[in-house]
Amino acid sequence: MTLTRSQFLRVAVAALAVGPHSARARTQPRPSMLTRTIPSSGIALPVIGLGTWRGFDVGADAAARAPLADVLRALLESGGRVIDSSPMYGSSEDVAGALLTELAAHDRVFVATKVWTEGLQAGITQMQDSMRKLQHTPIELMQIHNLVDWRTQLATLRDWKREGRIGHLGITHYRDDAHEQLEAVIRAEPLDSVQLNYSIDNRAAEGRLLPLAADRGVAVLVNLPFGGGGLLTRLQGRPLPDWAGEIGCRSWAQILLKYVIAHPAVTCVIPGTSRASHMRENAEAGTGVLPDADMRRRMLAALA
Q1: Which residue range is the domain that position 75 belongs to?
Q2: CB-hemisphere CA count at 13 Å for 44?
């Protein structure tokens, strides 16, 4: 069933009603991560996940893989479970799959990967390879990476979803100049999710794509929440604004993530990292209060 935008926003607001634990709940080790629901399936996802681009492309090097196992532990211990990968990301699928098996964590994660090739059989072969590398079936979300040959691949994804090989299907891109095409596909085809670029310094998706996703009942995964990395680098060393504590932020990374999560159409943000400390820091942004409209204006002013 497709939700109207108003219905989706009501669901999203209700999901966010769970704030930080009260003083009576101090036996809990940490606040629970907020969740948002995939409209098409009703599955609730924690709002902070993990992207594997670059960070997990370490091949068979055991020494390089060890810290990545700690990243996955930090994700799970923090209440997250979404892991996003792609055959485009080198050995990332292999590495993530092996580590999930090592940690016996396959039943605790929501795996999203992608098909990134042209042609019917090439797409089928690549997705079969992804399942083998990730050691994970069914795949919870299969996405068409950067809309490559999307009509051909979407037909296969629909068949695979009916057969239970995948749970959800979607499309992705990471550039503003692809937003118009993303919009056209969302309008033309029933989809479970769209993955797109959105950050406090690149709010192009706010104009049409995010409202459209809400109208059509399409879940939204956000890539590049730090503006591609350049913004976060520029902010390092700058004192935090006085209001940061009002929304439970102790770092600029958390401020940038809170801005993105606060949009009610956003389902999950997938920042990439290869450091467990950064994973925990990112995950904290998915807990507690989120900025309201007034706070979001203050956040924008602080970065002006």
Answers
A1: 44-237+264-288
A2: 11
In a domain, 169, yes or no: yes
Please state the domain count of the chain. Answer: 1
SS3 assignment, position 272? strand
Which residues does residue 245 pair with via DSSP β-bridges, in sequence order?
none
CA separation, residue 41 to residues 35, 191, 193 (Å): 14, 11, 11
Name the pLDDT band for 29 (thresholds 50, 70, 90): low
What CATH number corresponds to the domain at position 225?
A: 3.20.20.100
55 occurs within a structural domain: yes
Q: How far apart are CA 271 and CA 279, in angstroms?
A: 9
Residue/partner pairs of 232-238 with CB below 8 Å, 24 or more apart: 232/256, 235/303
Amino acid identity of residue 126, one-letter, is: Q
C-alpha to C-alpha distance for 29 and 82, rounded to whole angstroms: 21
Burial of 299 (0-12, 13-18, 19+ CB in 10 A): buried
Asked if the structure places residue 202 within a domain, the reply is yes
pLDDT in tens, 46-93: 999 999 999 999 999 999 999 999 999 999 999 999 999 999 999 999
Q: What whole-number distance in Å separates Cα of residue 191 and Cα of residue 234?
A: 36
Query: CA 278 to CA 48: how far, in whole Å?
Result: 12
> What is the pTM for the complete model shown?
0.90
Angle between helices 179-188 and 209-216 (to 10 degrees): 10
- Please indicate, yes or no, if residue 259 is contained in any of the structural domains: no
48 CB-contact burial (10 Å; exposed 0-12 / middle 13-18 / buried 19+): buried
C-beta neighbour count of 165 within 10 angstroms: 17
